[in-house]
Write a structure and sequence with these properties.
Elements: E1 4-6, H1 11-16, E2 22-24, H2 26-29, H3 41-50, E3 56-58, H4 77-97, H5 100-125, H6 131-151, H7 157-168, H8 170-179
Parallel strand pairs: 1-3
Antiparallel strand pairs: 1-2
Helix pairs in contact: 4-5, 4-6, 5-6, 5-7, 5-8
Length: about 180
Amino acid sequence: MRLLLVSNNDEEKLLFNVAWGKLYRKWNIAHLSFENCMPSEDMDFNFKAYIYVDKAIIIDCPLYFYVQRPDSIVKSKGSLIKHYSTRSALFYAHFKALTGSNKRDFGHLLLRALYRKMALWKGRTYQTEAENETFQKCREYERDTRWAYWLNWRINPIEKIGITTLLHCPRLTRWLMKKTKNY
């Protein structure tokens, strides 16, 4: 039996959070390793590890605490744009690589995360020098995943409409980010 123990009850964070928030059985993932100096290497490792996990146990209490400072370099504007682009690329690549039962089990989570990150990425780069490159990359990702996203019954239809609206209206996304102090 394969086992994954996590301290989070959010399905997406179960997949996409950091590796140190989980306990794995060594024999399940002994052949996996982290990519050297790769941004979001924890997330990439988790994608690979979940293919070998048959069972997850969720603990609804925090097992680890850390502090994120508001002036941290990770929170800087340039860093966030890089974060959104890196995460979008990883979500897209891993979705395209999924097959069979893994696509059925994890596909909707990857699509939801991809579309959310693309909306934030476009909102962040709207009316900047990075806008054209960002919009082209998002168009490519959306063109390849649009039907899978819209026909996936595990994604809430209202959420699909909302996220797609934000994806195609970066001015609105940017305004909402400012209003919610997520900018």
